[in-house]
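In keeping with the milestone schedule agreed at the kick-off meeting, the structural modelling team has produced records for the first pair of proteins. Each record is given below as a sequence line and a structure-token line. The laboratory manager (R.T.) confirmed that both were archived under the project's standard naming scheme.
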Amino acid sequence: MSTYQPAISKNVFPNKAIARQLEKIFIDPHFADSEILKRFLTFIIEEMLAGRSNQLKEYTIAVNVLDKPVDFNPKENGIVRIHAGRLRRALHHYYSGSGMTDEILVSIPKGNYIPMISNRASESSAVITDDEELSGRQKTDESVVVAVLPFLCLNNHASLQMFTEGLCLHLTEALMHMKKVTVISFQAVKSLCENIHDVREVATILRAEYLISGSIQFHKGDLRANIQMMNSGSCKQVWSKLYEGKLSQANVFDVEDEITGQVCNELQVVPQFNPKPEPVAMRMAAG
């Protein structure tokens, strides 16, 4: 079976020239503050130049670049694909700006992780980008992009942690049905947040305009859920509500439904969502 090899122009550059090109790229603001992007690009370039292009798989990158354990399963964790999409966009921004006259072009064709090194003089194609890789979403000009961050569970109980994650999943699904709202997959968000703790960087990678976060507290049957939404660009909180109620094993799904319904109805009146408010009975106290 033949192995795919990157398309390289006839005017092949020496390794030192490619190394100097990487140094130029890494000065760019899209790379300067991201060790992950620099490590990712350096690794795949070095592997390609060493003749190991056929080993550039999700698993190899996860273990060698992202420090994942040897039992990492790419089918259950899309973190490599997330960072690959991020790297493609960063390269696109670089060559559209400070690198627009560079002789050496570096790109990563969609569908694999093998880099392509080419000569600008002999290449007419643009650097390939993958703006929709994160979630398979298609954003319309009128919609706002929202991501639900993993809620903080303030109690160390496995059952409450399961409830917290279930609430995030249910809320993400419910937001998909709101008009003019595009929602990032919660599993993609959760996987990214395991590695990156700066919410502004998370928002930048996901291209999310608004982030919904929250905290869950439980004491002797009483549940308190504090949920907020912030503008990812300004970090200003634009909405917040506090839900309080009873939680037991018998009403877990009912409480998830109730909180989710009330949050979605509350967001209907947030100006950024171009509201068409509907009168609904609310039992949420102001946060």
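The second protein of the pair:
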Amino acid sequence: MPDAEKHIVLCPNPERDIGLQMTLRAREMLIKEGHRVVVSPVYAQESEGALAALQDTLPLDEAAKNASLLVCFGGDGTILKTARAVVKNPVPILGVNLGHKGFMAELERNELELILPAANGQFTPVSRVMLDVELWRDGKVVYSDVALNEAVVCGTATTIQLSAYGDGCKIMEYTGDGIIVATATGSTAYSLAAGGALAEPTAKNIMLTPICAHVITVRPMILAPDRVVAIKTGENKGKNIWLSIDGGELIPFLKNDELNVKLSQYHTIMAHIPGKSFYDIAFKKLGERI
């Protein structure tokens, strides 16, 4: 039964949910079942036309308060943006995949009706670890963030020298395109494409994945949850090097900068639908089982 004190938040990406058609269908379906519904577009500026007739819209940070479920309509990028927006006030997130692979989404566009049982509490909340990321420069933190998928240090169409440390001990040093520090959630994203291992989403390990290393002995590493990772760059002769968190903006990574990464106190809560296996979802997205 719907909780009269709670509401459901629909979080569409209007570039994926054209005209908010899926969102409006879900809204109508939920309201008919007695749920209070709030619409909070992840990219509000692209959805103003479709929202003009709606009264129940709020910014996401405000809508998340007293919400029982966030339903995202889009791809993994939409879920990532939503998760980061509510990191200090976590609410279970259910993804409806309107993107490409959509590893993080439990539902596909033809499973819209499964939102109803989830809205009625028929899901398992699954905690996903996040990463605290700090960029140090001249003894000061100049940038900090929280990542659900990964932190990436890379060059621009050029190789760079870099090294990775765990609790002060050198793990790897090489010339290559960059390095990925990922969570288990991020193991299905850029890290996987770069040759990293596939991890169960509830694993609490830190994944270190080199990008196109020019040393055959440098391999991806799976680190303990309590490890503190440091990334440093070598002599790169004025090359542009960048830091990116969860595929977001490029932040300049200067000579002598140091990136520190560790597990965060914050978590993302995903709504897991009964009967759906991570293995089945992963292999279906990557290619059908034999």
